[in-house]
Amino acid sequence: MSENCSDNNCCESLEWLRERIHNKKHFTARFIGQISDASGMDAELVVKVLAGALSVILAFSVHAHFFANSLLVAVPALLIFVFPAEKPSDDSLFIFFSLFGLLTVLDRSLEKIPCYYILKLALFVLLYIPPYVLHKKISELIQEQLKKQKSNENVSEMTRSQRSAPKTNQSTRTAVSALPPPPQENPKPVEQAPPPVSHPVPVEQPPPAEQVPVQQVSAPEPSSAPALVPADPTPEPKLPSSRSRSDLAGGSQRFKAGPNPMQSNSFYNLKSESDGFNSRAVSPGNNLNDMLFRPTEKLVFNAPFDYDNLTYHMKITNNSHHRIAYAVKGNAVPRVMANPAFGILELGEERIVAVSVQKFAWNDIYFHKDRIAFDYVLLPDDNKDKDFSMGMFQHSDTKRRKNIRIEYNP
Is the pTM of this model over 0.70? Predict the structure, then answer.
């Protein structure tokens, strides 16, 4: 299993590099293409020549400090101001500039290490190459520090409130003790009006009348009790009606051999922030309606969010003339997961997929970009496999993606 995961990570890294070299939607590929057209060399050969020249400069040049830091400042500036469509997320930029500032301060003391500036440049490149292990660890450390700060702030607020509580009690006591002397003279005329007080007496008589029928009902308890018992439990299941047997906590009935694979395999984690359909080398005979989704754009989960699982059942349909292999990925695993997370759809087959959201604190999690994505490929006619495998995605030229947004209604 570990070998498959490592192979998948290598494939993802190589695919990411090829995209930046050959896919013209990236400014790096457009720049390399211009050099390739002018020199007549292959695009990959141009990249190797540029990488070799940069390595020599960073390893042996006296101005390696200038070249390395200029490159690390110029690329984010281009992404932010010139090519905003390719800009990474704000969290990624925060981590990048924080780490860049820390290392730049220590450059003069660390440049004694051989090839230090090459290692520094490689470190920042690893932040944005799948499987994003370094980026995830840094973001987890930052989140832990933020949680500790919040907990310390809450503790300090509690101590402040406890210290201020006795002062308020003393002020109320003094106020109450100061008020009674003047009103002692006013109740005297009030005592002279006993007749009006006698009027509310008949109003107090209905309560005993209400207690009498209650005692009478206690006698026919066997006949009235069954009528009351079904009335009480009926409103209770209405609240957790969103729960389902396909919920993912503690393992699901569909995956009896173990937990949901979305929790144990990084293959099901989204690596990009792109939306909508992403097609690569789609042949003219295919179309984007080969796989249908209901709902088509988003899933809305209603509050409260303190249940173990809130589940939304959506439908997927194979509308093509080929078998389809699919896998569900997400950017909020394990808080948002799907079941079944992968499978093969026969021609015209419909399948129900349970999308579950585990309980979370509304103010402690950034959930505004939550989404799941259906990656799917059209299987060739000679493929008769009944079991799903990740190799179906690696050896196919018809890989596509459908994003489904996750929204929360408080």
Answer: no
